[in-house]
Description:
This protein is largely without helices or strands. The protein has one helix at residues 85-89, and strands at residues 3-4, 98-99.
Amino acid sequence: MTKATSTSRRPAVGRQLDSNxxxxxxxxxxxxxxxxxxxxxDFDDNKLIxxxxxxxxxxxxxxxxxxxxxxxxxxDIVPDSVVNVSDMYKLLPPFFxxxxx
Length: 101
């Protein structure tokens, strides 16, 4: 069961330059088709933080760092210039299961 959230109650999961903290949800369900990503941990635009998001942090992205071939600020949820376990933790409870409304 997912927990519904509102704009004021959704968990703060990252604040990348290519995400939008004011606009709560993706405009479409197709990933990577918008100018900015609405909710940083919702990688596939399904409006949920769930296990499918973890796949977007696996190799070759996992372990990449600023300047590397596979590095993406979008995947660096904890902005520390490397995609690692700290970013994966942002997909776990209490964030896991939240829905964008």
